[in-house]
Amino acid sequence: MSKPNAVRIGIIGDFEPSYHSHFATNAALYDAATNLNFPLMVRWIPTPSLDSADAAKILSRWDGLIAGPGSPYNSFTGMLRGIEFARTHDWPFTGT
Amino acid sequence: MKIADADSAENNSGSSHYVVAPLSCSLPNRREGGPKASGEERLKILPGTRLHSICGSEDDSEQYYCNYGVNEEYEKQFQATGLCVSARGMQGESRAVELPNHRFFIATLFQPQLSSRPEAPHRFWLAFLRAAMQFQKARARRGTSRVSHGKARAKTAAG
């Protein structure tokens, strides 16, 4: 379980454990949080889950959003919805 | 950009507007068997951008692992929406873009996670997490953990 005040980061993408870029994204985030000395929670948000009316509700749970590497995505529409949400709602966002 | 059928060439949709297209050049240090952009590349980070304030210098070197990038034919249209280029490859190609008036909105072709190390996390990720932490605190002060859908900030016409 995460600590209650953990910074919550949602990575939009279809996690594949064998992809080095995916593993490296998780690792870099946890290493950075350790360096900054604050608790962190990271979860991947599957792109098909955002191709729905609930997209904004799902995305607003997170303090920061990342468009994960690894295209083509299972749902390109879901990925675009995630990016659009971050852009139009001024949510911390990066895509790498 | 108000282009109804804008797409990535990777999706092979038959669109007449592939705003994301296969990279035209391979990186000089391309890994054998890897995508066109794999391995390390020197790049220039543009002064005055947020990325520059994060990385602290104009000259940088980053790791890549990708085949597609911004279709340079559309760069001006991207910029007209408010996106600005914040890093360029040595041939002038777009390598990172950002929204200047946004809390934190930076997209990179390179992957700073590939050169981040436990003992030396990449500055990009430190900056991103700081932004997320500040945002979390700001939301807590406002006493809301949910987005206010009626107050969406339509900052640009990108996307």
Mind explaining what this structure looks like?
The complex is a heterodimer of chains A (96) and B (159). By secondary structure, chain A is an alpha/beta fold. Helices cover 36% and strands 20% of the residues of chain A. Chain A has a single domain, classed as Class I glutamine amidotransferase (GATase) domain (Rossmann fold, 3-Layer(aba) Sandwich). Chain A has a four-stranded parallel sheet with strand order 2-1-3-4, sandwiched between helices. In chain A, helix 3 links the parallel strand 3 and strand 4. Chain B is an alpha+beta fold and 159 residues long. Chain B has one domain: Class I glutamine amidotransferase (GATase) domain (Rossmann fold), CATH 3.40.50.880. The radius of gyration of chain B is 17 Å and the shape is globular. Classes of the chains: A alpha/beta (96), B alpha+beta (159).
CATH class of chain B: Alpha Beta
Mean pLDDT of chain B: 83
Rg of chain B is 17 Å
Helix/strand-derived category of chain B reads alpha+beta
The count of β-strands of chain A is 4
Number of helical elements of chain A: 3
Radius of gyration of chain A: 13 Å
Taken as a percent bin, the fraction of beta residues of chain A is 15-25%
The largest sheet of chain A, given as strand count, sense and whether it forms a barrel, is: 4 strands, parallel
CATH class of chain A: Alpha Beta
Q: How helical, in percent, are the residues of chain A?
A: 25-40%
Note the total helix count of chain B.
3
Biggest β-sheet: strands ordered side by side in the sheet of chain B: 4-3-6-7-8
Provide the CATH architecture of chain B: 3-Layer(aba) Sandwich
The CATH homology group name of chain A: Class I glutamine amidotransferase (GATase) domain
Q: What's the N-to-C terminus distance of chain A?
A: 27 Å
The residue ranges of chain A in which pLDDT falls below 50 over 5 or more consecutive positions are none
Task: Tell me the span between the first and last alpha carbons of chain B.
Answer: 6 Å
Going by helix content, strand content and strand pairing, the class of chain A is: alpha/beta
